[in-house]
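Saturday, quiet lab. Running sequence design on the structure tokens for the scaffold JK sent over.
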């Protein structure tokens, strides 16, 4: 199954995409992760993208479409994927359709994670991840069981995203409202959109997404 998770920064797209990868083998395709890897590696794409990302803006459609198209060519994408953070503009949504058609793939669902923006700033500015295994934590909502030690892999190294500060988060939200939310009707017209309450307890969000995935099989 191939799905898109749509929602503002901090809505839980990454958390859900990594759960779907773990539980269903649907590979998590996060353009944000791909871009951060390019920045860390100092590639030409990474060098172009860095300033835009630090400011909370959107990297050009051309760059992001090319990265995603390459990633879709890897074998693992054939067994199902979750798009996390892509598409973010109408141009990207149309490019994705063209890519999928050319590669003989199709979209099964677009899941919108609906959330309250004010609560998101609080969620985002407190988050951090393990440098080794990528497990996500939060200063208030999910601290490691033993302070300073990752619950999953035992590492003592954690990192925070440079764009997870209050000012940049506001810009990222504004970008979502202006450029990403308007693509929902494009998918709605094809009957692909399911809306899930992203403010619900984690177990309920998980269950609501599972119900959407099951609905296709029944
Ligand atoms: P994310 O990890 O999805 O929050 O993305 C982090 C940053 O990477 C965003 O604020 C953008 O600057 C950039 N980015 C990620 N995905 C895209 C995309 N599909 N289109 C444009 N910029 C993107």
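Result came back. Writing it out in full:
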């Amino acid at each position: 199954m191939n799905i898109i998770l749509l929602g503002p920064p901090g809505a839980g797209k990454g958390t859900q995409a990594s759960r779907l990868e773990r539980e269903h083998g649907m590979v998590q395709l996060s353009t944000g992760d791909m871009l951060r890897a390019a920045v860390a590696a100092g590639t030409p794409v990474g060098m172009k993208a860095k300033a835009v990302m630090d400011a909370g803006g959107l990297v050009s459609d051309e760059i992001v479409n090319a990265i995603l198209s390459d990633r879709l060519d890897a074998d693992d994408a054939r067994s199902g994927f979750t798009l996390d953070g892509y598409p973010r503009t109408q141009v990207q949504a149309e490019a994705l359709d063209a890519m999928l058609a050319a590669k003989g793939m199709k979209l099964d669902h677009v899941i919108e994670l609906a959330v309250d923006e004010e609560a998101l700033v609080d969620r985002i500015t407190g988050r951090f991840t393990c440098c080794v295994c990528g497990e996500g934590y939060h200063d208030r909502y999910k601290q490691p069981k033993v302070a300073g030690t990752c619950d999953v892999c035992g590492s003592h190294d954690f990192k925070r995203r440079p764009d997870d500060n209050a000012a940049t988060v506001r810009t990222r939200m504004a970008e979502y409202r202006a450029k990403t939310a308007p693509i929902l009707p494009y998918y709605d017209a094809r009957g692909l959109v399911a809306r899930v309450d992203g403010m619900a307890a984690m177990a309920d969000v998980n269950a609501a997404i599972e119900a959407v995935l099951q609905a296709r099989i029944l």
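Notes for JK: The CA atoms of residues 46 and 137 lie 26 Å apart. The longest strand covers residues 109-114. Ask whether to fix the surface positions before the next round.
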